[in-house]
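quick one, 88 residues, struct below
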Amino acid sequence: MLGSGRRFGHDRRIHRAPVGVSTGVKTIGWILATLLVLVLLLLPLVASRAQRWPDCKGDVVMVRGIHGEPLECVCVGGTLSTCFSPGP
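---
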């Protein structure tokens, strides 16, 4: 009885019910589908908050700042370089 691996009539190994492969695949599929729907729902919100900058066709452009104040921006090589408050 000492070397049999049993104690009080029970086997020491843990018995688990076998999980089918299809159950795991379904779970992963549901998780991926939920994440995809979440991304599709949040995409318009993120896109609407993205700040749109004008094309730098000239040397200086006027844009609105985060709080609606006017900003004067300098373009270098067709890229928005620096912005500052307009003034004299």
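The mean pLDDT is 79.
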